[in-house]
Each structure stands twice: as C-alpha cells, then as structure tokens.
Design a protein that fits this description.
It contains 5 helices and 3 strands, in the order H-E-E-E-H-H-H-H. By secondary structure, the chain is mainly alpha-helical. Strand 1 and strand 2 form a beta hairpin. The longest helix has 27 residues. The model has no long low-confidence stretch (mean pLDDT 76).
C-alpha cells in the first residue's frame, strides 16, 4: 500500500469516526448511543448501538484500521492510558516523585513551626454568641 493512499484511507476513517460520534442519536431512556446513518468504512449500519452502559464492547478505532489492513496502526492510534503510554508514565513515575518531595518539605516546615498560639476568648472562637444574646439584641 502506498503512503499517499494509506494516509487518505486513514484521514477518511478518522473523519467518518468523528462524524459517527458527533451525529449519533442519544437514547436517554435506554442510555445508549445509536448510529444515525450507515458508515460503510467503519462497518457500522444505521441503528447500530455504538455506546451503551452495560455488557457492551465499544468501537475500537485500532480494530477498524486492522480490518482495513493498514500497516503501523499503532502510529495512528495512541495506546490506551490503562495499557501504557506517556500519560501513564507521567502519572506513575514523575507525579509520584514530585509529591514525595513536597511532603518532605512541608513536614520539615511544620516541625520547625511547632509553637502554639494563644487561643482567643479561651478557645471559644471569635464569634461566640448564645441564642439568648441574639434575641435580646433584636428587641
């Protein structure tokens, strides 16, 4: 398959995939998304359920590319965040390193600042009114 025809096929598939999700019919009673017309390149017919809440396998763009026998489908579609990729790497490796450093700094700062301040009004707070005082003031 030539590179230009491959790119044209991929661009056409992406366009149809976007319109499929943008123009779907949402059935709020059954909590489903339904295709509103035929998408022959995506192998989806009119009335096909493309999204549901229970016991449903959603459409996978990578599988559609594999059915069209597109070479290097992994380059076109990014991996799922659950499987791996840059997002998961950042969440697991980099974000955890930053959090640990911040925790250490705050603990050291709080240990240095252990002095207790005196409590205002014997610990009762700034605005300590009883219901009786408020009723007397309203009169």
């Amino acid at each position: 398959m030539e590179a230009t025809t491959r790119e044209e096929i991929i661009n056409e598939l992406k366009a149809q995939y976007k319109t499929l999700w943008r123009e779907r019919i949402d059935d709020k009673v059954r909590a489903e998304g339904i295709a509103n017309k035929d998408y022959f390149m995506l192998f989806v017919e009119k009335g096909t359920v493309i999204f549901a809440t229970r016991d449903f396998k959603p459409l996978n763009f990578k599988e559609i590319l594999d059915q069209h026998k597109v070479v290097d489908a992994e380059r076109v579609v990014l991996p799922s965040p659950h499987v791996g990729g840059w997002g998961k790497f950042v969440r697991t490796e980099i974000a955890s390193q930053k959090r640990n450093g911040r925790v250490r700094q705050t603990r050291q700062y709080l240990d240095d600042k252990k002095q207790r301040q005196y409590l205002k009004k014997g610990g009762r707070g700034w605005l300590h009114f009883t219901a009786g005082l408020l009723e007397r003031r309203r009169r």
